[in-house]
Design goal:
267 residues, alpha+beta
Length: 267
């Protein structure tokens, strides 16, 4: 059954609850559309995912509509209906350093929080005692599990586990390009709007701190620098932001750079 279900296009992102208007908070389908999804033609499903559901997501009152420049942002992202399948935009740089076999699949949530002072990016600092990347700044997220329908579902599930982000406080917008890490993970970032009323509750075994950084600061090329590191006797160049009290670097900085580049290339 799982193979059959995944072969059929679906906008489901794992948030499966109806709003006051009878639409799913995650995918914007009506109950009738969800019930009849398997009986629709693939052409009809694609038309709904391409034209109808994104328009519903931008209706007045949606979280996305509270985000300045949301229409341009949506154009800059890969659509929710189809997660990107390429190896990763930086794969060529790491191809000879990665172990044999495909990388593990992971997903993270690049959450944007609309505030009166401007849009903020929600970040976490991992607990120091973690075996992998302890103490580092990153986005909520982790490995994609077999029960996750897609990277969006994984990113949202992990965010619920790590910072107690509930489904009704977030609206997924689209994907950035996958990024491959030196630890052999292919990370797919999901960009989403987070309700500014949300109060994070860090899971102390994984997250030491949750904080926000202005999106304008992170999108300014003057605030991003390239640093050299020695990895197994080879010089690598990684990206880094310096923010008071925090070091935002590596995969996290690269994901933010990818967002900036996609916005720069979008009219």
């Amino acid at each position: 059954m799982d193979a059959v279900r995944r072969a059929i296009s679906s906008p489901c992102i794992g948030i499966c609850s109806l709003d006051g208007g009878g639409r799913c908070r995650g995918c914007q389908r009506t109950g009738e559309e969800i019930a009849g999804w398997m009986r629709m033609s693939e052409q009809h499903r694609q038309q709904l995912m391409r034209d109808v559901l994104p328009a519903r997501a931008l209706e007045a009152g949606s979280l996305a509509a509270t985000l300045p420049g949301h229409e341009r942002l949506l154009r800059a992202l890969n659509p929710l209906a189809s997660a990107p399948s390429d190896k990763g935009w930086n794969y060529g740089e790491l191809a000879d350093l990665l172990p044999p076999g495909p990388p593990a699949e992971a997903a993270v949530l690049a959450g944007l929080v609309p505030r009166p002072q401007g849009v903020q990016v929600l970040l976490t600092r991992r607990t120091e005692t973690l075996r992998n990347h302890g103490g580092q700044v990153g986005f909520p997220g982790g490995r994609i599990e077999p029960g996750d329908r897609n990277p969006a579902a994984a990113a949202l599930r992990e965010s619920g586990e790590e910072i107690a982000l509930p489904a009704e406080r977030v609206q997924a917008l689209g994907y950035l390009d996958p990024f491959v890490t030196i630890s052999s993970f292919r990370v797919t970032p999901l960009v989403a709007v987070i309700d500014p009323a949300f109060v994070p509750v860090p899971q102390p075994a994984e997250v030491a701190e949750v904080f926000e950084v202005p999106l304008d600061f992170l999108m300014d090329p003057a605030n991003l620098r390239q640093v050299e590191i020695d990895h197994r006797g080879r010089i690598r160049h990684v990206l880094e932001y310096t923010w008071p009290g925090q070091r935002i670097w590596g995969a996290t900085a690269a994901i933010l750079y990818n967002l900036r580049r996609r916005l720069e290339q979008t009219p």
